[in-house]
Amino acid sequence: MLLLSAARALVDGIDGRVRAAGFDDIRPAHGFAFARVSGAGATVTELAEHLEITKQAASQMAEELIRKGYLQRSPHPTDARARLLTLTEKGHACTRAADAAAVATLEPLGRALTGSQKQALRTALRQLATPGRIRPTW
């Protein structure tokens, strides 16, 4: 329960700072979508697989983010049947704000621990975490 509480505090801290930066029309789950779409982009199917949600739910999320100006849809460069989702400049700005918010949220937490406590925590979390399984659950 303590780990879940800490994770929620981290997400809430980042979300609050992102909203304060002017991106008040998104949810934490959108950040997980941005993480998959950033870079080379992704199809709705790839987004659904990444978020472990249905294609219909991923399509609805994509439509919402397109409507809000965070994503754009374009022809896929190698698959004529698919459409590629990529971040717009607003989407990139939001991810930069989220990166800065994460640093600002983690800074006081890092100061609260000694160097050896931070190392022990990193070691324990590496043993507990499943690589690649960072996705929204709310």
UniProtKB/TrEMBL annotation:
It holds the Pfam family MarR_2. Residues 1-130 form the HTH marR-type domain. InterPro entries: HTH_MarR-typ, MarR/SlyA-like, WH-like_DNA-bd_sf, WH_DNA-bd_sf. PANTHER family: MARR FAMILY REGULATORY PROTEIN, TRANSCRIPTIONAL REGULATOR, MARR FAMILY. This is MarR family transcriptional regulator. It comes from Actinoplanes couchii.
